[in-house]
Design brief:
Chain lengths: 341, 684
């Protein structure tokens, strides 16, 4: 019904207006950063469709009471009015006072799904029920928070393209206990979100412009396979290089080191990637970083305006991947619908 | 019903379905008595089926089956009632709709709709019954429905106790709003549409005809007709004649009530006046029973020239009114002259009626001449002297009913005597009329009110005496004075066989019966309070309440003020309560336990109380020195306390530690007096 382009653009316009309105409403709130506390000034509440249904039913009941001059019907109608009125307080209170902390978001490769998690903390001794976190049209499963305890609320978002992202405005909402009202708050928590390039194996790219169809990573390798040299283990040496046979003999840890002065190191170079466009080069570099880490190599990476010095291990790999994700990328707002902005 | 895909997997909202399947039948139960059995059967089947489907994890039936069932049910309702509107048919349709809604429930929305309709079902109960019992019951149903709504929206199973408490609290919090709205919401006199009176058709009040040949059904009716509260003085029973209808026209068998008397102004007097409030059950007539002589009337009623008080519309639901009476003829009321036309009507006897009675009266006239008093006395003497009987089960009268009663059967109740007496008086040339109403009743010491049943209906006469005006004569008093002095039960001794059990409150009853009547008095008291305080509140009562506060419910500003003050009070009380709670919560829970422990120790020895500046571990060592048996407990307490206040704990650890602290409180006995040393029970 809504598929035709006219109403589609109308909807976009409405969405934009809606966005402006929310920005105007929340203009007095500072950015939340890593944590937020829900005070009275940021909990909003409006009736839901079920709420309007109840209002209609109560109106009919009131008319019936008047028509039949039935005082007990008046009493019950007014009792329900009271309950409906108090539901404002109950629903509002279900959100009020919560503390929300954003948890670190594990980086993913482009095309995978990001898992966003917040920790909800209940400080005031009231158990909270049925809290949902939504970002755009994506909503988490509802969670409950026991009194004076905390719970994680999780939500997955698609991560379509490499880059550094910020979360768009988040909405934490609840309809507990009667479903006739929805209380919500807008959050602007901004955990760091890194999306690495999806790795592409340069070896599989046929007919690359530079014709480097084979093993471009061999570029700065010391090709002379000189006999290994053993030296005593120093903290930080990768476990893959420990010579276990030597350990069995001597009871001491030794690592294998190549004789040449530079060691068995590897430079991954932007320039040597067999692709023209930035993203593909980054994707290839990403593959190389992963491969080098897998092999336990000592490696460094050269990007046009940045160099990652030689190193090895998981932290080094992550540093390289982070550089790839951040490469010429300003933080962008993540689109929860997953379309490439 | 909207088409909807029925592939939706079990919605988390379905968690409330179980409770809904309990709450809705509870809400519908009172309808069983008022609905044809097939409705009950249908609802029970639908709910049982849904419960079975839920228990066995099967999905709801498909849309096709549901559509067929819905058409079938609608058709059945239509054939049963010929309509789907109105109270019975509407309720039937509502019940069927809910049953099907439950049967096809697939998601939260379905349950919520069914539960909302459940509230509606509770309201429809009141069409049939407005007793205090139903009020309590519907509170239970509302509580269950609300609990089900909460469970539906909770997204996880809430512990039963917590759910019950929460739903209860919701009802409790809503009560003040209910009260304010009930009193201050501007009332309009219904109905807005239709004729909502059919429901009350079952019961009627006094008949506007009196026919001594008929069987007295009303006199066997135990139900309450009216209840009266007197402001201060209670008039003597002898004066408690509640006049309702006046009958002047007689066709030889039947008396019919006057309809054509003009309206007069009640006399204006404050002297020796009895003020009272009547709660009258619906009678479908317009008459309001009042005491003689009515001097103050409710606004919507008028006084007719025959001292009959009529309301401006039929009494189809219970009403309450205030009135006042002057127990003797008020000054200026005794009419010096009877209008000639009126005199003629009050003397009329159909030609040939009661020939034997006329002969008898002629004899009295011959004896007493013009002395009307003596003739009246002669008539009363006749009833008192000859073998007349008072009975509620008189033989049927045939032929000329007056003569048959006077000379053959000689047994009857008030109607027979009043009718025969009137005929005798008219034959003697004394203008006479029949008055019906209530007399006697039982004084309810609990609640201090007079309760008149339909069985207390009575008929008596008024005769016109020149210079005195209309004077009340009660011929029944001549045959059965106890009937007047003590009400019907007074007759138990001589005519016990004809008095229903419930009227014989005195001797001759077993303790069980007496207990039953005691209980019955209590129940009537509760019912009366419920009816006079809750059910009788109408636009009229509201106007009085507002007037007492200097307001007027017809003026929207007054209504706003009343509502504003009411809600403002609720708001302030709620704020104060929340403020107190925050004050209590200001201290961390561990500190509250610490303070309790210190207080508990101080009860044994004031020196053991913790000084405000004293570190907890120093204090605990000090206590341990003084009371070695507490050493372990104090040591554990101080360690746990410090970890609780200053350590980094997971929420679970924190809660466990807090429980531990509370448990340690038990190590110190509660005893206020001398400290009896006992082995430490410190929980470790």
């Amino acid at each position: 019904m809504r598929a035709d382009p006219v109403s589609g653009s109308a909807r976009q316009r409405i969405n934009r207006l809606r966005d402006d309105a929310i920005r105007w409403i929340t203009r007095r709130h500072a950015q939340d950063g890593q944590a937020a506390r829900l005070g009275r000034d940021r909990v909003y509440i409006l009736p839901t469709r079920a709420g309007y249904t109840l209002v209609a039913i109560l109106l009919v009941m009131l008319l019936g009471s008047i028509n039949y001059s039935n005082n007990m019907a008046f009493l019950l109608t007014f009792l329900l009015v009271g309950i409906g009125h108090n539901a404002m307080w109950y629903t509002h209170r279900n959100l009020l006072g919560l503390r929300i902390h954003s948890l670190p978001v594990a980086p993913v490769f482009a095309g995978a799904t990001l898992s966003i998690a917040f920790r909800l903390e209940e400080p005031s001794g009231r158990p909270r029920e049925a809290l949902t976190l939504s970002i755009g049209a994506r909503a988490s499963a509802p969670v409950a928070v026991p009194a004076e305890a905390s719970t994680h609320v999780e939500l997955t978002l698609p991560a379509p393209a490499r880059g550094v992202y910020q979360l768009p405005r988040q909405r934490l909402h609840t309809r507990y206990p009667l479903g006739i009202l929805e209380a919500w708050t807008w959050l602007t928590l901004s955990p760091e979100i890194l999306v690495y390039p999806a790795p592409i194996d340069p070896g599989n790219v046929l007919g690359g412009p530079e014709g480097h169809a084979t093993q471009p990573q061999a570029q700065s390798r010391n090709s002379g396979e000189t006999p290994d040299h053993l030296r005593p283990y120093r903290p930080g040496d990768p476990p893959g290089r420990i010579v276990w046979k030597a350990f069995a003999r001597s009871g001491k840890l030794h690592v294998r080191e190549s004789v040449s002065g530079h060691g068995d190191h590897l430079w991954l170079d932007w320039e040597s990637m067999p692709a023209a466009d930035t993203e593909t080069r980054l994707a290839m570099l990403c593959h190389q970083v992963l491969a080098a880490h897998e092999e336990g190599r000592l490696f460094g990476m050269r990007l046009p305006d940045q160099t990652v010095e030689l190193g090895q291990g998981a932290r080094h790999r992550d540093l390289c991947l982070r550089s790839l994700a951040q490469f010429r990328s300003e933080p962008r707002i993540l689109d929860p619908e997953g379309s490439r902005a | 019903m909207k088409p909807r895909t029925h592939t939706v997997a079990a919605d988390p909202g379905l968690r409330g379905l179980e409770l809904a399947l309990i709450a809705l039948p509870v809400a519908a139960l009172p309808h069983v008595a008022h609905q044809p059995p097939w409705i009950t059967l249908l609802v029970v089947l639908a709910i049982a089926t849904r419960a079975w489907l839920l228990a066995s994890g099967r999905p709801a039936p498909s849309m096709g089956i549901m559509a067929i069932l819905a058409v079938l049910a609608g058709g059945l309702t239509l054939t049963q009632y010929g309509t789907i509107f109105g109270q019975e048919a509407g309720t039937a349709l509502l019940l069927v709709m809910i049953a099907f809604k439950l049967l096809e429930t697939r998601n939260r929305r379905d349950i919520v709709i069914a539960l909302f309709l459940g509230y509606f079902v509770v309201v429809t109960t009141y069409f049939f019954d407005q007793s205090i019992l139903i009020a309590a019951y519907s509170l239970l149903a509302t509580w269950l429905l609300t609990a089900a709504l909460v469970q539906v929206h909770a997204e996880r199973r809430i512990e039963r106790r917590r759910l019950a408490r929460q739903a209860g609290a919701m009802l409790l919090h809503a009560m003040p709003f209910m009260l304010v709205l009930f009193l201050a919401f501007p009332r309009i006199q219904g109905p807005l549409w239709g004729d909502p009176q059919r429901e009350e058709a079952a019961r009627t009040g006094l008949s506007d005809e009196l026919n001594p040949g008929d069987i007295a059904e009303l006199l066997q009716d135990e139900s309450t007709a009216l209840r009266v509260e007197f402001d201060d003085t209670v008039p003597p029973l002898r004066a408690q004649y509640w006049r309702a209808l006046v009958m002047t026209d007689f066709d030889g068998r039947r008396w019919s009530a006057d309809r054509d008397r003009e309206t007069i102004q009640p006399p204006d007097t404050d002297d020796r006046v009895v003020h009272y409030t009547v709660t009258l059950e619906p009678t479908r007539g317009r008459y309001l029973p009042v005491l003689d002589y009515p001097v103050a009337l409710p606004d919507d009623a008028e006084l007719r020239a025959n001292y009959q008080v009529l309301r401006d519309r039929r009494i189809t639901s219970r009403i309450q009114y205030r009135a006042a009476a002057h127990l003797t003829t008020p000054p200026g009321v005794a009419e010096p002259h009877l209008d000639p036309a009126e005199r003629e009507r009050a003397l009329a006897l159909p030609a040939g009626a009661a020939p034997r009675a006329r002969t008898e009266v002629a004899l009295w006239r011959a004896t007493h001449g013009n002395d009307d008093h003596a003739v009246i006395e002669a008539a009363l003497q006749r009833f008192a002297g000859e073998p007349y009987r008072y009975t509620l089960r008189p033989p049927r009268l045939a032929g000329d009913t007056t003569d048959h009663f006077l000379f053959e059967t000689q047994a009857g109740y008030c109607e027979h005597y009043a009718s025969a007496f009137a005929v005798l008086m008219r034959a003697a040339g004394i203008p006479t009329r029949v008055v019906t109403g209530y007399q006697g009743g039982s004084w309810q010491t609990r609640g201090e009110y007079l309760r008149l049943r339909n069985a207390d209906a009575h008929a008596w006469n008024e005769v016109w005496l020149d210079g005195e005006g209309w004077v009340r004569v009660d011929p029944t008093a001549a045959i059965a004075p106890e009937r007047i002095e003590q009400g019907l039960p007074g007759l138990a001794s001589d005519t016990g066989e004809s008095i229903p059990d419930f009227l014989r409150r005195g001797e001759g009853l077993s303790w069980l019966q007496r207990a039953r009547f005691g209980l019955e008095d209590w129940r009537d008291f509760a019912r009366f309070r419920w009816e006079s305080w809750v059910l009788a509140f109408d636009p009229e009562r509201q106007r009085e309440l507002f007037a007492r506060l200097g307001l007027d419910p017809g003026d929207w500003r007054s209504v706003l003020i009343a509502l504003g003050v009411g809600f403002g009070t609720i708001g302030l009380v709620a704020l104060a309560w929340m403020w107190l709670r925050t004050l209590r919560r200001r201290h961390p829970p561990a500190d509250r336990v610490l303070r309790r422990l210190s207080r508990r120790l101080a009860r044994h020895d004031p020196a053991l109380a913790r000084a405000p500046h004293e570190p907890v571990d120093a204090w605990s060592r000090r206590v341990a020195d003084a009371r070695p048996e507490l050493a372990t407990a104090m040591e554990t307490f101080s360690r746990t306390y410090n970890r609780q206040r200053f350590g980094r704990l997971t929420p679970a650890q924190r809660a466990a530690d807090l429980d531990h602290l509370r448990a340690l409180l038990q190590a110190v006995p509660r005893a206020r007096l001398a400290f009896a040393p006992r082995p430490s029970r410190a929980a470790n």
